[in-house]
Structures are given as C-alpha cells and as structure tokens.
Amino acid sequence: MRQVDVGLGARSYRVLIGEGLIDRAGEWLAPLARNAAITIVSEENVWTAQGKRLVDALARTGTACNPILVAPGEASKSWATLATVIDRLVELGTERQDHIVAFGGGVIGDLTGFAAAILNRGCNYVQIPTSLLAQVDSSVGGKTAINVPAGKNLVGAFHQPSLVLIDPLALATLPTRELRAGYAEVVKYGLIGDPAFFDWCEAHGHEVIAGDVAAQSHAIEASVGAKALIVAEDERETSGRRALLNLGHTFGHALEAETGFSDRLLHGEAVAIGMALAFHFSARRGLCSADDAARATAHLAAVGLPTQMRGIETTAGRLMAHMAKDKKKSGGRVSFILARAIGEAFVDAGVDLGDVETFLAEELG
Ligand SMILES: NC(=O)c1ccc[n+]([C@@H]2O[C@H](COP(=O)([O-])OP(=O)(O)OC[C@H]3O[C@@H](n4cnc5c(N)ncnc54)[C@H](O)[C@@H]3O)[C@@H](O)[C@H]2O)c1
Ligand SMILES: [Zn+2]
C-alpha cells in the first residue's frame, strides 16, 4: 500500500492506494461508523459492479451500511438528486461529525462531497473512487459541485475529504472507453510538469488501458502524488498553480458543450483533444517546438484517444462563445494553459482571442 499526504494544515488527509483496499475498507471505515453503521452514497452501475466487495468488507468488521443509491450519469449532479441525497442523510440522522462515504466515479464524488459540504454546515466524507478519472483526479483536492442549466460545476464548494481510499482493482469492471478517457488525465500530469513521467506513459500507457494492475497502480500513484502537491500549494486556485490542471480543459469544455456533455464525447476524450490543441497552439506561437507538440499528440493517439476535432459539428465562432462563458475567465479574459515543452505548462492570461479563433478555424479545416 502506498500513502500520499495532502498537506493542508488542519484539513490535511491521507490518500491510500493499494490493490484490494476495498476488501479491507472496514479497517478504516469501522472506526468512523456511528452505532456500527456508515452511510455510502453510490450509483447503480458501481453498486452492481463493486458494491458487494464494500458491503462484505464492512460486514467483516461488524459494520452495517446504509446505501443511498442514485442513477448513474452526469444528470445526477443536479439540484433534484442533491435534495434526495440530503433528505435521506437527514432521515438517517447524519450529524456533523459523521463520515459519509462517496463510492463511485467523479459524479458520485462531486455530488456526495457537495452534500457533505452543506449538510449541517459541513460533515466529513471519505472518497472511495472507482473510475480511473476519479482515482487520479476528482477524488483528491476537495472540489465538489453540481451542474445547473447555466453551467457545469457552477454550484459547489471547496470541501476536502477526510480520507481517500483508492483500489486499482475497482477498474476491472470499468468500461474500456471510460478507462481510456480517464487515462487522458494521467497523461496530463506528465505534460504539465513531469517529462520523465510522460516517458513512462509512452512506454506503459497501453498497459494501463489493457488492464495491467501494476501499470495502473503506478499511474495512479504518480498522478495523485502530482495532484496532492499542486493542491497543497494552491488549494483554491488562486495563485495559478492549480490552474495548470486545466491543461486542455478550456478547449475541452467548449467541445463538451458543443456535444451536449453527452456520451458523444467523454470528458477525458475532450481533454485529449484539448491538450493536443494546446500544444499545437503553443507550437504555432513559437512557445514550444513542433516536435514536442507532435510527440504529445502522438502518444494520445497511440492509446486510442481522439486528438482532432474531426467529426464534431462545430465552428470556431461557436467554440469561442463557449470559452467566453467559461467560468475561469477573469476580467473579461480567458486564461489558456500553454506549454514551453513536454512537462512545462504555464498559465497564459494574455492570449489574443482572435489568434485562438483563427487557429481553431484552421484546425477545423
Ligand atoms: N472535483 C474535481 O476536481 C473533478 C475533476 C475532474 C472531473 N470531475 C467531475 O467528474 C465527473 C466525471 O467523472 P467520471 O468520469 O468518473 O464519471 P462517472 O462518475 O459518470 O463514471 C463514469 C462511468 O463509469 C461507471 N463506473 C464508474 N466506476 C465503475 C466501476 N468500477 N465499474 C463499472 N462501472 C463504473 C459509471 O457508472 C459511469 O457510467 C464529471 O462530473 C466531472 O465534472 C471533478
Ligand atoms: Zn478533467
């Protein structure tokens, strides 16, 4: 088992990573239970695929579980589902010092984390992420949110979990397309700040997607280690350090919006295209070499991720309109994460939007 510490003073917590941790979860959860019971928020797919492991693990330590199950999918990050979850938590008599467990992908983590942030003005919660995206990204860092008609993740809170338990064996039942999409966020850490890890990705990325548990464990440990350091430095994305994690996301969100945040383009797939665009745009501006842009793109393509906007019905103007609405805009400007090389990303708040539009129009051909 590996431990990564997220150092945030009084809000510090541990991330434990290890094969079979779900089957041992009672060791950590039993002491957090009240009246020998603990509440688990999950969704139907995850519960069917992995729920029995967690229930059995708790039973072995004499802990009962109160499952609160919601429908799978992004639509559950809604006011309606949040209200259902909160009502149920209240019925169960949840108190501020209680721990609620989020057991699922990023949807469950974001929804449960937000419910925990606002119930009783803040309860504890534990993340047990089951998708690769949630294991390498969303379960660490305390961003919680739901979506509203005006925008994705527009209503939320920073609320750190008290513990994160990551079991790579959960990925055995994750659909390959979801695994691959989550892998885009793994590559992101190499591209942002760790060229040696990008080398590792080039050599072993296909093993992560093929289900090799040792490769998955290494990818998770490296990713969580990188994210923990960034979050510890810039918890609330004020210094620009945490903003680096948005590499590929400004373009990516615009593409997701154009495809209706649907299965047409998964988040990680949109981020893969976005990262390829960010590198090509950086090369075009003379910030990084064309070779580095080609290399970043080639690896994403080699593992089967999309790197071009081909097949997406959109225009440069429509993409620009989405970016203008992006909540990360500040003072009327959109910040882009650009790169000087593989492993050297930086925040550029001074990008001329006309240049971006011209570039996108060319890319769309
Ligand atoms: N809080 C953050 O910092 C942060 C960061 C990135 C993304 N997010 C959010 O995360 C969400 C996306 O997360 P996601 O990709 O995990 O989506 P998700 O939770 O919808 O999971 C993806 C799919 O995989 C299934 N699944 C998950 N684990 C499984 C398992 N072990 N076995 C079988 N099926 C499994 C789910 O049912 C779902 O169909 C988005 O809402 C995004 O906004 C948050
Ligand atoms: Zn992302």
Question: What would your notes on this structure say?
Answer:
- The protein has 13 helices and 11 strands.
- The protein has 365 residues and is an alpha/beta fold.
- A 7-stranded mixed beta sheet has the order 1-2-9-6-5-3-4, sandwiched between helices. The protein has a two-stranded antiparallel ribbon with strand order 7-8. Strands 10-11 form a two-stranded antiparallel ribbon.
- A hairpin with a 2-residue loop joins strand 10 (336-341) and strand 11.
- Helix 5 runs parallel beside helix 6 (176-193).
- The longest helix is centred in the middle third of the chain and has 21 residues, at 213-233.
- The N and C termini lie far apart (49 Å).
- The mean pLDDT is 96.
- It binds nicotinamide-adenine-dinucleotide (NAD) and zinc ion (ZN).
- Residues 137, 185, 249, 267, 271 line the site of zinc ion.
